[in-house]
Amino acid sequence: MNQTISLDLDSTLLQITHQLFPQALLRAVDDDSSRLRPLLEIHRARLARQDHRAYDWQELTHQAAAPAYRQVLLEHQVELRAEGAEVSPILSTLKAGGYTLFVATNGYEVFQRMVLELAGLTDYFDDLICPDTIGVAKPDPAFWQRVPRDSWHVGDSAVCDVYGARSAGLQAAWLNISRTTFSEAFTHEAPGFGLGDAELQNPHAVLEQLTALPSMLHSC
Questions:
Q1: Count of other CB atoms within 10 angstroms of residue 135
Q2: Segment 105-150, tens digit of pLDDT
Q3: Which structural domains are found in the chain, ordered by start?
Q4: Pairing between strand 127-129 and 4-7?
């Protein structure tokens, strides 16, 4: 068995993060026009360089939101550090067991690196896989192109993490934060991805909490 594990970030490694980006986005585009100055400065600088990305407003909006997101993260650093401290022993155990660890997230790199840094988790991971750097998002099987086949992926989404990882040839462990059945979780998520029940793929393992991951791997 390959000694590589990819882990989802939001709602898997850390629970607080899914609440924070909406706060930052609202702060970045509120009625105060000064919030948009960084976006316009990047736009004008790219125009001056004849850089076609001057008109990539989606990417520019992400960049403009980054300072606000960092400020929101700093305001919640105590909670992030506390959650990071809870996860650290698990990651330490895995690293001591010889595992190579990847973060595999649908969040953009500029934001997720901040999260890992402020949670004190950066040094545990050998790679950070994000849609903006890999070119596709979960559950597209190509998302895991840098992860060796037969590795494990761990995440809370029945579709993005389990269906996607299994489609890519990985072993999938589902973190059941919803305290429901996998079938119910898949049925709830699948319509948004155009998937039907016939395409349901069960996880190889179900975790009720992340602390069970090392023992689950040991028993496989």
A1: 10
A2: 998 898 899 999 999 999 999 999 999 899 999 999 999 999 999 8
A3: 4-16+79-219 (3.40.50.1000), 20-75 (no CATH)
A4: unpaired
- Return the sign of the alpha-carbon dihedral for residues 8, 65, 77, 121: positive
Three-point CA angle 23, 63, 140, nearest 5°: 85
**Residue 148: cis peptide before it, omega within 30 degrees of 0:** no
Q: CA–CA separation, 24 vs 210, rounded Å?
A: 27
pLDDT in tens, 63-103: 777 788 888 889 998 899 999 999 999 999 999 999 999 99
Q: Two tokens at 179?
A: 């305290």
Residue 213 near residue 207 (C-beta atoms within 8 A)? yes
**CA 86 from centre of chain:** 18
Q: Tell me which residue of 178, 177, 165 sits closest to 204, measured CA to CA.
A: 165
* DSSP three-state, residue 11: coil
Task: Phi first, then psi: give them for residue 113, nearest 5 degrees.
Answer: -65, -40
Handedness of CA 86, 90, 95, 99 (dihedral sign): negative
Backbone angles phi, psi at 208, to 5 degrees: -85, -20
Residue 49: CA atoms inside 13 Å, Cβ hemisphere, count?
Answer: 10
